[in-house]
Amino acid sequence: MARRKKVYEGKAKILYEGPEPGTLVQYFKDDATAFNAEKRATVEGKGVLNNRLSEFFMTGLNSVGVPTHFIRRLNMREQLIRAVEIIPLEVVVRNVAAGSISKRLGIDEGTPLPRPIVEFYFKNDELGDPMVSEEHIIAFGWASQQDMDDMISLALRVNDFLSGLMLGVGIKLVDFKIEIGRVWDNDYMRLIIADEISPDSCRLWDIETGQKLDKDVFRRDLGNLADAYTEVARRLGVMPQREPPVTKPTLIN
Length: 253
Ligand code: TMP
What we know:
globular; binds thymidine-5'-phosphate; 5-stranded antiparallel beta sheet; D-amino Acid Aminotransferase, Chain A, domain 1; 2 domains
């Protein structure tokens, strides 16, 4: 069988050419990185969980009219997606202070914010993804004024959808990051949600106990990351099957 063509390899995922033009296959690795890949580990089962969870969130978003790149899941670690032209920004929405905003502005982690705050970071590993303003984004041509309005609207719709979903299973959506891409339908360009939505790119706290159920478990050495993600999947009713065990042949008399 011909080897399929790798289009891009990131820290947690690989993109391969898809079966039809305009599609890609997104493969979820077990690799976990933090602090711009200064900290790395392999977390068995993370890729399977994130594939299922991203499918779950993106399917839900598609069904409420928030367009995403997700087409269908192919297997335990792969999903078919629409190819997009990624806008080189990480769009972060925050409901509660945590992580970098707490550090930068001296706000205690866990402080509710007066309204959801949308932030933009320039996707550039060499520069450590610096925060940028609308002025930078428009001046450097990464997105237009119309794109900005559309990105903020998409980000807030994702926030409403995910916050409600999480609240229903006793989880607080503290913040999250999304990536957005352009697609063309004939001459008409529109923006859709791309990349992934998973506990790698959200902060999720148990409402009762405050227990962290996201990648901070790995960033801050708080326990087993796969257990935390499994708990999120379990509560949402997304039960990933375990990968088939590697069975050794048994000798039968
Ligand atoms: P921050 O508090 O470190 O800025 O992170 C905000 C949110 O964005 C948090 O949910 C984690 C997510 N995030 C990513 O998905 N990728 C990244 O590279 C970073 C820095 C944060």
